[in-house]
């Protein structure tokens, strides 16, 4: 329950920061759909989003909740919270982003859609790539422990012989 509240709070913070970023700087960083620089500006924004998302996923996975699946839960939570709140942002887009042209609203929607796709994929990949701590792993095979099979069998036999 505690983890859910923290992940929801973090998701809300991410949404607030990204909305403030586009409220303050969106007029400068978002090109209009169809302009020559639209593709490159969108690409740079998505790369920035990708890098921030990797960093957030690593913080969640390694610092906040060092168990497998925590970054994925963060991604799903952030996508759910963000999509819910961005529904109202899109409805009230003239009030939220008053300096945007209609084409910049479209560009923001394109960025947002790709960003939420990344929110569902990137944390899951980070969860998959970050190894578990050795203390959390239960080895089933002697080779995984780094012991030759003979020593494992010998220690197993001696443990049974003592009983």
UniProtKB/TrEMBL annotation:
The chain crosses the membrane at residues 7-30, 42-62, 74-91, 111-130. The keyword Hydrolase does not apply. It comes from Cohnella faecalis. Keywords: Membrane, Transmembrane, Transmembrane helix. This is DUF5367 domain-containing protein. Residues 154-163 have a biased composition (Polar residues). Residues 137-163 are annotated as: Disordered.
